[in-house]
């Protein structure tokens, strides 16, 4: 009997080291490769010979150029639409100007990106104190941001009590 117990424990210990965590997948925030992050690399469009060098636009340092990718416009054109219709107004698509104006009616913080980056860095620094002491793999993304996750059923119930229509949420229980 003790041999069977030892054998079962050995099999369980070896199977725990299989490394096939399908639940974690891309949510594992650690990088084990020495290479670049493949999601941060955006290749440019192919260079083309202009018909006339005199008709080239003037260079705009820090602005866009002819070889920059525009995935939204490229997708619209690939589906048969006009990508040029996605004109930008101060970095905002022309169809969203009214929305951005309404949302920013109470003022906009000019340094919101820097403030959020600093707060997120402090949050991750505070929560990374004992992360190296884990015996088994955990979903670090879910653990780091679990306080900020919303329960869809609770939120739907709350908004329904306010009388807001929620047609895409789960049915009432």
Explain what you see:
The chain is extended. The chain has a domain at 70-108. It is an all-alpha fold and 173 residues long. A hairpin with a 2-residue loop joins strand 1 (88-89) and strand 2. The mean pLDDT is 75. The protein is 35% helix and 2% strand. A two-stranded antiparallel sheet has the order 1-2.
What is the element layout, followed by pairings?
Blueprint: H1 2-16, H2 71-78, E1 88-89, E2 92-93, H3 97-103, H4 112-127, H5 140-144, H6 152-161
Order of helices and strands: HHEEHHHH
End-to-end separation: 50 Å
For the residues shown, what is the average pLDDT?
75
Q: Characterize the main sheet.
A: 2 strands, antiparallel
Taking all Cα atoms into account, the compactness measure Rg is 26 Å
Note the overall shape: extended
Number of helices: 6
Q: What is the helix content?
A: 25-40%
Poorly predicted regions are none
**Beta-strand percentage?**
under 5%
Trace the largest sheet across and list its strands.
1-2
Structural class: mainly alpha
For the secondary structure, the number of strands is 2
């Amino acid at each position: 009997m003790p041999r069977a117990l030892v054998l079962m424990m050995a099999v369980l210990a070896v199977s725990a080291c299989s490394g096939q965590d399908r639940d974690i997948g891309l949510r594992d925030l650690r990088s084990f490769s020495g290479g670049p992050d493949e999601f941060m690399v955006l290749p440019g469009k192919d260079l083309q010979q202009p018909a006339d060098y005199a008709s080239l636009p003037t260079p705009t340092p820090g602005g866009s150029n002819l070889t920059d990718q525009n995935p939204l416009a490229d997708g619209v054109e690939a589906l048969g639409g006009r990508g040029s219709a996605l004109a930008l107004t101060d970095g905002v698509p022309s169809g969203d100007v009214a929305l951005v104006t309404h949302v920013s009616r109470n003022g906009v913080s000019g340094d919101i990106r820097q403030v959020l980056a600093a707060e997120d860095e402090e949050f991750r620094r505070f929560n990374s104190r004992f992360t190296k002491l884990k015996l088994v793999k955990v979903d670090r993304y879910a653990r780091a941001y679990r306080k900020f996750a919303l329960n869809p059923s609770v939120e739907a119930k709350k908004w329904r009590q306010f009388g807001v229509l929620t047609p895409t949420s789960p049915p009432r229980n």
